[in-house]
Design brief:
The complex is a heterodimer. Helix content of chain A is 47%, strand content 15%. Chain A contains 3 helices and 3 strands, in the order βααββα.
């Protein structure tokens, strides 16, 4: 009935993250409906999808997946690793600030006395 | 002299922040009692003899009172979320208020730096000629993305109407017939909605399969966060390490279980990877190559694997 039909996946936010992972699994373990018919196209669209995979796997997707991100959206950028990185950078900057401020305070006090 | 002054300053700061810290401590202790040691919390309301009797009975019969109100999956998820909150906020207790101020200034400088350095300047519309092959490709992709975004939006039911009208969603009790709203939004005949499961569980978002006659395609639409259970899958956001192995004629995934996963989820992955790996216990012989290795979102990966297992036989019937 649907012999010459194509296959499309689409989703938003949590669904967008799920589309990326489902396409990832389907490209690694292609089911028989993708193997047998080379004419059948397989497309995936993720709208503001959550950040799910690390950067090493990005070239596996090729032309299949298209992800749409609107401006400075938070959800596609937020993950455990990104928060950890920000914390590390904050701690580094804070250490710099501490040394800088201590030097300045000492200078001021010495100047007054 | 200078050192004494600095010490005085620190003492003042610590005295100021002590009250704040005490409040935080109380909150954390209560939350940890509620989640990790409910026995003691319930025991406050009982006599000594009653509580000792209950504890003895529970230990003898291997019972967990948390499972009377919640399913075992949800208890595990709550523990996980509590752990994540502790990881994030445990160090806040030992900070003085001045250090918190310093961290916030550091964050603002970081924000300013990235806002100025990573601003992408889009080319203006006049500089692009419309006969460019690149421009036409881009336009095609744009139209395609817009076309299928209607399907993705329609899975939320009538939520989009509230968003566009500007009403307060929190005060409206919504009883939604998702099938009806989906068909209204996409404008396809009701026979073309082949399958739909809108009721969510942890690790199982809502989705539907529809036929689109106009573009000759079968569309699988996945819904975003719409329920408490979806929020639980979002919050299970620890990272999971895995490799792609290349065997003789196929590829497979191998997960590392070094992280402290709960038994229930580990079983779930084990069951599903049998399907993906074909042999649950692959022994490496030296012929296999590791193609890539990286990380992924643990909650989403478990739900994606279980969805893959559900969906592929269904789609195989439609597309032989």
């Amino acid at each position: 009935m649907f012999n010459d039909y194509n296959f499309v996946i689409g989703g938003h936010s949590l669904g967008g993250g799920m589309t990326t992972l489902l396409t990832f699994l389907m490209l690694i373990h292609p089911p028989s409906f993708l193997k047998k018919n080379p004419q059948r196209t397989f497309k995936a669209f993720s709208y503001g999808g959550a950040s799910v995979l690390s950067n090493e796997f990005s070239d596996i997707f090729g032309d299949v997946l298209k992800s749409v991100i609107c401006g400075n959206d938070l959800i596609p950028r937020l993950s455990y690793a990104s928060v950890q990185e920000i914390c590390k950078m904050m701690i580094g900057l804070q250490n710099l600030q501490v040394t800088f401020f201590k030097k300045n305070i000492i200078r001021c006090v010495e100047g007054r006395s | 002299m200078i050192q004494q002054q600095l010490k005085k300053q620190e003492a003042d700061q610590s005295a100021l922040s002590n009250g704040f810290r005490k409040n935080l401590n109380d909150v954390f202790q209560k939350s940890s009692q509620l989640v990790s040691k409910p026995l003691d919390y319930i025991g406050d309301y009982l006599n000594q003899t009653q509580s000792t009797l209950e504890k003895r009975l529970l230990v003898e019969h291997n019972l967990d009172p948390r499972t009377w109100f919640l399913s075992s999956e949800n208890v595990e998820l709550l523990e996980k979320i509590n752990k994540l909150a502790q990881d994030c906020f445990m160090e806040v207790r030992n900070l003085s208020s001045y250090e918190i101020f310093q961290y916030l200034t550091a964050l603002s400088t970081l924000q300013r730096f990235y806002y100025t350095s990573t601003k992408i300047e889009l080319p203006s519309s006049q500089s692009i000629s419309k006969d460019d092959p690149q421009y036409k490709e881009f336009q095609n992709i744009q139209e395609e993305c817009f076309y299928y975004s209607i399907f993705a939006n329609a899975t939320y039911g009538d939520l989009m109407n509230y968003v566009y009208s500007g009403k307060d969603i929190g005060r409206v009790i919504r009883v939604v017939n998702y099938d009806k709203e989906f068909l209204n939004h996409v404008k396809i005949p009701p026979t073309d909605l082949l399958y739909s499961s809108w009721i969510t569980q942890p690790y199982k978002p809502g989705y539907c399969i529809a036929v689109d006659r106009q573009s000759k395609s079968i569309v699988l639409c996945l819904r975003g966060t719409n329920d408490w259970f979806d929020i639980l899958t979002d919050l299970d956001s620890n990272f999971l390490e895995f490799d792609i192995l290349e065997l003789e004629d196929e590829r497979c995934l191998r997960f590392n279980f070094n992280y402290d996963f709960h038994d229930h989820i580990q079983k779930k992955i084990d069951k599903t990877t049998k399907y993906l790996l074909k042999n649950s216990n692959i022994e490496l012989k030296g012929n296999e190559k590791i193609l890539r290795s990286g990380f992924c979102h643990s909650g989403m990966m478990t739900s994606a694997i279980s969805l893959y297992k559900e969906l592929v036989p269904m789609v195989l019937i439609l597309l032989p």
